Amino acid sequence: MDSANQVIFVLQVALTIGPVAVYFLGLGLVSSQAHPCLVSERSDFVLLALAFVPLIVWPFVALLKAGSVLVALALLSAVIILFFTLLPRRNDGWVIYNISTEECRRALARACRRLGWQLEPTPGDDTESVVLPPGLGVSLHGMPWLRNVTIRCELPEGSADEQLRRDLLEGLAGELRRESLLPSPTGAGLVVIGATMLGLPMWYLFRHMDSIVDVVRRIILA
Question: Which residue, 194, 202, 160, is CA-closest to 27?
């Protein structure tokens, strides 16, 4: 493999692994904070999709180089359609990092009591239902290995009262700010994974530094 091909390969490795490594580093740092972190489900999905964009870009570029333009466009169209199909609607739900399902249930119960709402469990270990006159359904879905909980809100069919969601969000956010947590082993593990993934392309980069310098010199002197 000549110098130019080595440089291209190093850049491909860095651009492919880098975003995923930064994503895991971010998750690790968020999960190591003293308080839970609440983000919208829509924002969380977009950040996850951006982290894995390079895994889609390289097959697309390879198909274009091979002259399969129609196949490349079909792949791109399928990815775009899948993205917008899976993209959560605005304000439909939130993701809380650095919290267990049980801790989230307790914070949700306290927020409902402050709002004067009644919290009743529905069948299932990971689902709760908020019961109040207008009828607001709330489901909890925990992911223990990432130590996060996804909360989705459902208003009655035909209801346009978005104030219910905003009240619940503000109440829950206030309760989460009062939570004090010990350092999370999950956060430390995610930081180690992200740092390791980020270190791999950096190690490869320094290992082939002579080739990179040679290619840069050729470009400058061309």
Answer: 194
Query: Which residues does 54 contact at the CB level (< 8 Å), separation at least 6?
Result: 15, 16, 18, 19
Q: Is residue 204 part of a domain?
A: no
As for how many domains the chain has, the answer is: 1
- Give the E-state strand segments of the chain in sequence order: 37-40, 93-97, 118-121, 128-131, 137-143, 148-154
- Cα-atom radius of gyration of the chain, to the nearest Å? 23
Identity at 91, one-letter amino acid code: N
Domain of residue 41, CATH code: 3.30.310.50
Range of the domain at 81: 33-182
Q: Is 47 helix (H, G, I), strand (E, B) or coil?
A: helix
Burial of 140 (0-12, 13-18, 19+ CB in 10 A): buried
d(CA 24, CA 184): 15
Cα separation, 16 vs 54, in Å, equals 5
> Is 207 within a domain?
no
Residue with tokens 């899976």: 86
Q: Mind listing the pLDDT tens digit for each residue in 92-148?
A: 789 999 888 888 888 888 888 888 877 666 555 444 455 554 567 788 888 887 888
* Token output for 22: 């930064």
- In angstroms, the CA 187 to CA 207 distance is 30
The Cα–Cα gap between 107 and 88 comes to 24
